[in-house]
Amino acid sequence: MDLTEHAAKNRRHWDATADDYQTKHAAQLDWRKPPCWGVWERPESELQILGDVGGLDVLEFGCGAAQWSIALHLLGARMVALDNSARQLQHARRLMDEAGVEFPLVHASAEAVPLADDSFDLIFCDHGAMSFCDPYRSVAEAARMLRAGGRFIFNMATPLVELTYSDLESKSTETFQRDYFGLHRVEDADTVSFNLPYGEWIRVFSEHGLDVEALIELRPPEGAPSTYGDYVRLEWARRWPAENIWKTRKRLPAQGAPRSG
Questions:
Q1: How many beta carbons lie within 10 A of that of residue 149, not counting itself?
Q2: Would you kindly state where each structural domain of the chain is located, as residue ranges?
Q3: How far, in Å, are 22, 67, 69, 141, 180 from residue 196 at the CA level?
Q4: What is the pLDDT of residues 115-151, one digit of tens each?
Q5: In CATH terms, is domain 5-157+196-231+243-250 a member of 3.90.180.10?
Q6: What's the pTM value of the predicted model, to 2 decimals?
Q7: Neighbour count for residue 249 (Cβ, 10 Å)
Q8: What's phi and psi for 215, nearest 5 deg?
Q9: Nearest CA to 190 among 222, 167, 164?
Q10: Contacts of residue 156, Cβ cutoff 8 Å, sequence gap at least 6
């Protein structure tokens, strides 16, 4: 399928940097560890975001080297892992062989997924496709592939990170740097990322038949270690949320009106 201009740019970046990325973050992302969310490794066992995935058809939406997918496969999920970067998927294949597991890997943008409607019980990502795909496209794709009652869950940067990011200082600051209502597309020399105001996220979910069940704003514990030190400063994220997890569910079909008489 044809890529959008920004998806092609992001693909070039991740193909070029995947080796360095996987080397730098290997210890934090290790599939042998219990699954954790985000930059500061908040344990899934503590947050209970996904719950029991045993027996579910699950799609990881921007999997990188598929460390999450390997871990969930070992917990009994029927996994499919998608990524826009062929080089990231080569790392995924290496780690799958290392773990002795097998599941499909799909090379595609989350804006145009070559998978059937109503295929999954759960679609999720942790700073994956939803950070680098246009939500007006990717939310529609997730909703299309979910079965009724299925869940779409993802972690990404909060609007506050984007609003306070200073290109001059190359970090998030304590003052707003861009317009809240201007959030959508943020482009730099290497990548194009996306975000939306909170109300617009809710509108887009609703438009595609997804109801919000929760918005979890992650706060790292004091002294939390991370290999992502260039994301935002720990002290910043202790004061303001730097990551949030959206939990949504696809509506069940409306029941017919009862007959009168």
A1: 11
A2: 5-157+196-231+243-250
A3: 28, 27, 27, 17, 8
A4: 999 999 999 999 999 999 999 999 999 999 999 999 9
A5: no
A6: 0.95
A7: 18
A8: -130, 115
A9: 167
A10: 127, 130, 131, 195, 243, 244, 246
